[in-house]
């Protein structure tokens, strides 16, 4: 059912996720929240997995039909429990968006072990933890769509982001490998590389953010809402023959 009065109303007529179950990690804020809204508007039951209980409570009050899951994606046991919870409630998982993320930016010679590990744990281990849990379910369904969120840094590198770039580049390798492993089971695995005006971008120092913005051909960061259509396309039934790609949703930044 479309959310009246939102920009998603018209789009949800193109993207029909009625009866589908979509799990979005980091789904309580930023791009993830916008995806949760988008898929809800397009008829899906959305499970919102997030480590921030306050953001999760807010998201759940905005989207009362969604399933809130307080999960740290780097904790494999918690991820397993969350997937079991969703299965018990709605018996299937059609789409997973591995979106949860953090930044701990610092030039490589100053990076602490903790900053290195935290970023790898959330982005790369989190993507692995959830993918490993949902693949057996998707294999039984003979249907699944996995969309991993990577970044310009993972494709091209970025000063101060050795940890983040390594994690995001790892996600691209993980996407391509799992795409090959899972194609024969009706499961596609793709990645998107967005840029969007979120808390994460707001946390970048002003001078660096302006410099980055000046490199975007469209001339601005996107709104988080502009990421949904690209993700929904890859998550749609119609995209069955597209797997292993990295779709930039970045205003031309990666050209
Ligand atoms: N915003 C951008 O321009 C941009 C650019 C490239 C890639 N990305 C990627 O997009 C994704 C979303 O970024 P965003 O800008 O919306 O960030 P954000 O900080 O606005 O939101 C991230 C969400 O992830 C959640 N989260 C953090 N750690 C978690 C964990 N361990 N387990 C579960 N949830 C956790 C947070 O609570 C938050 O709700 C990230 O993977 C990020 O790397 C963003």
Task: Explain this structure.
The protein has 255 residues and is α/β, with parallel strands linked by helices. The protein has a single domain, classed as Rossmann fold, CATH 3.40.50.720. Helices cover 47% and strands 15% of the residues. The protein has helices at 8-14, 30-41, 53-62, 76-90, 113-141, 152-156, 162-182, 199-202, 206-214, 228-235; strands at residues 21-25, 45-50, 67-70, 95-98, 144-149, 187-194, 246-249. A 7-stranded parallel beta sheet has the order 3-2-1-4-5-6-7, with helices on both faces. Helix 3 (53-62) links the parallel strand 2 (45-50) and strand 3. The longest helix is centred in the middle third of the chain and has 29 residues, at 113-141. The N and C termini lie far apart (37 Å). The site of nicotinamide-adenine-dinucleotide has 31 residues, from helix 2, strand 2, helix 5 and helix 8.
Q: Given the helix and strand composition, which structural class is it?
A: alpha/beta
Number of domains: 1
From the coordinates shown, what is the CATH architecture? 3-Layer(aba) Sandwich
Name of the CATH class? Alpha Beta
CATH superfamily: NAD(P)-binding Rossmann-like Domain
Q: So how many helices? A: 10
Q: Which cofactor or ligand species appear?
A: nicotinamide-adenine-dinucleotide
Given the C-alpha coordinates, what overall shape results? globular
The order of strands across the largest sheet is: 3-2-1-4-5-6-7
Radius of gyration from CA coordinates: 17 Å
Distance between the termini: 37 Å
Percent range of helical residues: 40-55%
The run of helices and strands is: HEHEHEHEHEHHEHHHE
- Mean pLDDT across the residues is 94
Please give the largest β-sheet. Answer: 7 strands, parallel
Structure summary, number of beta strands: 7
Low confidence ranges: 1-5
């Amino acid at each position: 059912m479309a959310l009246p009065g939102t920009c998603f109303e018209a789009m949800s007529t193109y993207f029909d996720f009625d009866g589908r179950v979509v799990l979005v990690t980091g789904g309580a804020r930023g791009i993830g929240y916008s995806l949760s809204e988008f898929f809800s508007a397009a008829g899906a039951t959305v499970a919102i997995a997030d480590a921030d209980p306050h953001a999760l409570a807010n998201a759940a009050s905005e989207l009362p039909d969604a399933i809130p899951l307080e999960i740290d994606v780097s904790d494999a046991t918690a991820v397993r429990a969350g997937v079991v919870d969703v299965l018990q409630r709605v018996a299937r998982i059609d789409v997973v968006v591995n979106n949860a993320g953090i930044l701990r930016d610092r030039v490589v010679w100053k990076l602490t072990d903790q900053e290195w590990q935290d970023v790898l744990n959330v982005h790369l281990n989190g993507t692995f933890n959830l993918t490993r849990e949902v693949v057996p379910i998707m294999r039984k369904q003979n249907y699944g769509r996995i969309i991993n969120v990577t970044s310009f840094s993972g494709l091209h590198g970025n000063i101060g982001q050795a940890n983040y770039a390594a994690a995001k580049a790892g996600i691209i390798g993980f996407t391509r490998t799992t795409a090959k492993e899972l194609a024969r089971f009706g499961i596609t695995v793709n990645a998107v590389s967005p840029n969007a005006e979120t808390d994460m971008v707001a946390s970048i120092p002003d001078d660096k953010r302006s410099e980055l913005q000046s490199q975007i051909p469209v001339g601005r960061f996107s709104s988080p809402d502009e990421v949904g259509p690209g993700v929904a396309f890859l998550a749609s039934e119609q995209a069955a023959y597209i797997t292993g790609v990295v779709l930039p949703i970045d205003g031309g930044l990666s050209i």
